[in-house]
Design a protein that fits this description.
Elements lengths: L3 E5 L2 E5 L3 E2 L8 E2 L3 E5 L29 H16 L26 E10 L5 E9 L2 E7 L1 H4 L13 E9 L7 H4 L10 E9 L10 E2 L17
Antiparallel strand pairs: 1-2, 2-5, 3-4, 6-7, 8-9, 8-11, 9-10
Length: 228
């Protein structure tokens, strides 16, 4: 039995003697059965690979051969370097925006400590989750006209800018030079964690500003997101 191969679009089919009418083919295909192998190409995206504009973070340089004297010397150099950096907060602060109902403020990075029970004044028991907000700084503010022109922007973000927030300071020896350069504008040590928050222009924050739990007030509604 002679078999023939036919390809239409992204569908590869093997056909043999029989009449088969399909919208995939312009003419009638003679086949007794059709075996298809779908090869999806358009729209494929590898989620395990970082985007092209992503900066490499970890370095592969090891300090195992350094003596303890050399390690202490490097720590002292790093300490003096960041102590002498001109902080943007030494300049005139940015004007404070006026809040309205459409204002969207930046968030912070926190560590989940666990859960515990609390009771209201009327004796009602409730379960709460504890988060620790530690060592947060504003790394960069991107105004809307620049953020909308960046790669990956969507029409929904056209009225928003972006605030990049970092948490958990670390020594520059743990990261690559390209990653360390991201923190020069803010004048803070490199951070282990970085994230981006969409904000309205009246909620812009100057790079280098520290963020703590005092960023919120009692009675505020907070959206918490985390990986399970």
């Amino acid at each position: 039995m002679a078999a023939s191969m036919a390809k239409a679009g992204q569908v590869l089919a093997t056909a043999s003697n029989c009449s088969f009418q399909s919208v995939l083919f312009k003419n009638v295909v003679s086949t007794s059965r059709i075996l298809t192998c779908h090869q999806q190409v358009r729209g494929r995206k590898r989620t395990s690979r970082p985007p092209g504009w992503h900066v490499k973070k970890e370095t592969h340089i090891s300090d195992e051969q350094l003596t303890w004297q050399n390690r202490e010397f490097l720590k002292e150099i790093v300490k003096n370097k960041f102590k002498d950096l001109p902080s943007p907060l030494k300049e005139d602060p940015w004007p404070r925006g006026k809040w309205n109902q459409t204002t969207r403020r930046t968030g912070v990075l926190g560590l989940k400590l666990g859960t515990m029970l609390q009771w209201t004044k009327s004796g009602v028991q409730t379960k709460i989750t504890l988060y620790q907000i530690i060592d947060n700084h504003v790394i960069r503010y991107i105004p809307p006209h620049q953020f909308n022109a960046s790669v990956g922007s969507t029409p929904y973000w056209k009225n928003f800018g972006a605030v990049v927030v970092g948490a958990l300071s670390a020594t520059p020896q743990e990261f690559r030079k390209e990653y360390n350069n991201l923190f020069l504008e803010a004048g803070v040590p490199p951070k282990r964690k970085l994230t981006r928050f969409l904000v309205t222009p009246n909620a812009a924050i100057q790079p280098g500003t520290p963020l703590s739990v005092m960023h919120y007030r009692v009675g505020d509604y907070v959206d918490v997101q985390a990986k399970t």
